[in-house]
UniProtKB/TrEMBL annotation:
Residues 1-10 have a biased composition (Basic residues). Residues 14-33, 201-212 have a biased composition (Polar residues). Residues 1-33, 193-212 are annotated as: Disordered. Signal peptide: none annotated. This is Transposase Tnp1/En/Spm-like domain-containing protein. It comes from Gossypium tomentosum (Hawaiian cotton). The lineage of its organism: Eukaryota, Viridiplantae, Streptophyta, Embryophyta, Tracheophyta.
Length: 308
C-alpha cells in the first residue's frame, strides 16, 4: 500500500518547538517491534488455521519526521470543532502512534482519567510540534484517550486473552512493551475490579447497534467531503444514510434499514405538509386580497358620498 505523502498536504510555517522529541525514538511504533516498520514494508501473520499471510505493518508516517523544524501540517476544522480533510487522517494516524508509545502514555493505569496530565501534555506538545491545529487541546486529548483505550483493548485481545494462566499472561509481553507496565495491567485485568469493569463494558456495548463504518475516515471527514462534492450542507440524517450503506447501496444492518425507511416516510410526510401549508397559505393570501380590495372599494364609495 503506498504511503501517504506528507508533502501532498498543506504545510505552514511555525516556530521550532523545544519539546519535540528524538526522531528515532518517535518513529519506533511501540507495541510492534523495536525496529521501525514503514507502511511499504510487509509483515507475516498467522491465522487460526496456521496459514500465513502478508499484511502491512503499523502506521509510522516517517515522512512526518522529515519536515523542517519550522514546518507544520495545517489541520482545518468544521463548525463543530472537529478536524476534517486529508490532514485530519494524518493527525489521527499520528495520535495512534503516540497512543502506542509506552514511555509517553503508559498503559498501566486503570483509565485515561488517571493518566497524569504531564504525560497528556507531553503528547499534546509533540503533536503541536508537527501540526498547526484549528481544533482545541481538549479535543486532541479526548481523541488521544480514545486511541489509548483502543490500544489497550488490542493488547488485551492479542496477548492476554490468548493465554489461560496468570504466569503465561505475565510472560506474554507484547513486543516493544515495557515489562513492568504489562505485568501491572495484567494483574489489574485478572483482579475482581478489572473483571467487573470488563463486564460493565460488555453490558454497555450490547445495546449498541451501529458502529463506525467509514474505515480510517471519521464521520466528520465523510460529511466534509460530501459537502465539498455537493455544495450543500450535510445533516445528521443524511450522514447516517451515507455511512450506513454498503458499496452496493444496501443498508448495513436491519436496524439501519428500518431507520432509513422511517426517515423516508417522514420526508414524504414533511413534503406533503409543506404542500398543504403552501396551498393553505395561498388561500389565506387570496382571502386577504379579496378582503383588502373590498375594504378599498368601500372606502372609495364612502369618500365619494362625502364629496357629494
Amino acid at each position: 500500500m503506498p504511503r501517504r505523502k506528507v508533502r501532498s498536504h498543506r504545510i505552514v510555517q511555525g516556530t521550532p518547538n523545544s519539546a519535540e522529541t528524538n526522531s528515532t525514538e518517535q518513529q519506533t511504533a511501540i507495541g510492534s517491534s523495536n525496529v521501525p516498520v514503514t507502511p511499504e514494508e510487509h509483515i507475516e501473520v498467522q491465522n487460526e488455521t496456521g496459514e500465513t499471510r502478508r499484511v502491512r505493518g503499523r502506521t509510522v508516517l516517517s515522512d512526518l519526521y522529515d519536515l523542517d523544524p519550522v514546518e507544520r501540517v495545517q489541520v482545518s476544522s468544521n463548525s463543530f470543532g472537529q478536524p476534517v480533510g486529508s490532514e485530519a487522517r494524518l493527525l489521527a494516524g499520528y495520535m495512534g502512534i503516540l497512543a502506542r508509545n509506552a514511555n509517553m502514555l503508559p498503559i498501566n493505569f486503570e483509565s485515561w482519567h488517571k493518566v497524569p496530565e504531564s504525560n497528556k501534555n507531553q503528547a499534546l506538545d509533540n503533536i503541536k510540534a508537527r501540526f498547526a491545529l484549528e481544533v482545541s487541546d481538549a479535543y486532541v486529548k479526548k481523541a488521544l484517550g480514545k486511541r489509548w483505550r483502543d490500544h489497550k483493548s488490542t493488547l488485551k485481545k492479542e496477548y492476554f486473552k490468548t493465554k489461560t494462566t496468570l504466569d503465561e499472561r505475565l510472560q506474554n509481553v507484547p513486543p516493544g512493551m515495557l515489562r513492568y507496565q504489562w505485568e501491572e495491567v495484567v494483574r489489574f485485568w485478572t483482579s475482581k475490579k478489572g473483571e467487573d469493569r470488563e463486564q460493565v463494558g460488555k453490558q454497555s456495548r450490547q445495546p449498541q447497534k451501529f458502529t463506525h463504518t467509514a474505515g480510517s475516515k471519521s464521520f466528520a471527514c465523510v460529511g466534509h467531503a460530501e459537502e465539498l462534492s455537493s455544495g450543500q450542507k450535510v445533516g445528521r440524517l443524511q450522514l447516517f444514510d451515507i455511512t450506513q450503506r454498503k458499496k452496493d447501496g444496501n443498508p448495513m444492518t436491519p436496524e439501519a434499514a428500518e431507520i432509513m425507511r422511517r426517515q423516508h416516510r417522514e420526508k414524504l410526510m414533511f413534503k406533503k405538509d409543506m404542500k398543504n401549508s403552501s396551498y393553505n397559505l395561498k388561500q389565506m393570501q387570496q382571502r386577504e386580497k379579496l378582503r383588502f380590495n373590498e375594504n378599498m372599494k368601500n372606502s372609495s364609495s364612502s369618500l365619494e358620498q362625502m364629496r357629494q
